[in-house]
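Re: that chain you flagged

S.,

Sorry for the slow reply, it's been a week of failed gels. I finally had a moment to sit down with the sequence you sent. For the record, here it is as I used it:
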Amino acid sequence: MDVLSLFTLLVTGFVSCAEFGSYAFVHPVIGRLPPTYHINVEQGLLRTFGRVMPVGMTLCLVLAVLHASIPGGQGGPLLWRWLATASFAAALLSTIIFNVPINLATGRWDASNPLADWKADSQPLGGVPGPAVVAAADRVRVHERRVRVGVGTGTTRRGADPGSLGGRDPR
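Prediction finished late last night. Pasting the structure tokens below so you have them in one place:
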């Protein structure tokens, strides 16, 4: 195995496993958390995955193209290598179209004051969020947050501390 093949295998394997692990093992667990904690964990994951995965996913596509471009049978038949490259391209494109708008909106949410239907707004099709729906829900949240904390007036709702849970026990 040459260096490019090994590096391609290691990088694409790491990125694919990280994405699958997040989807299959992390998100089902945090989905059962109370809203404040759930949003806090999602925002924390955005900070860590958001630094690594854009570089990793782009590198996967670049390495897949380089690997598929090598003549000969190293790494399998040419058709399979180009199909793998197409799958990395589709994954990157779908992430940019669907996940990035959701992640940007989630990063701006106020975890201490989530709307009652925040989960329904972010996943209108049973787990397949639509960017337009997410963007509209985010605009509603931003407006409500401004009203709630009195943006421009320097005041908050009577007796409300924007950083507290309002006396509610989140468990």
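What I noticed first: Residues 128-134, 155-171 have pLDDT under 50 and may be disordered.

Talk soon,
D.
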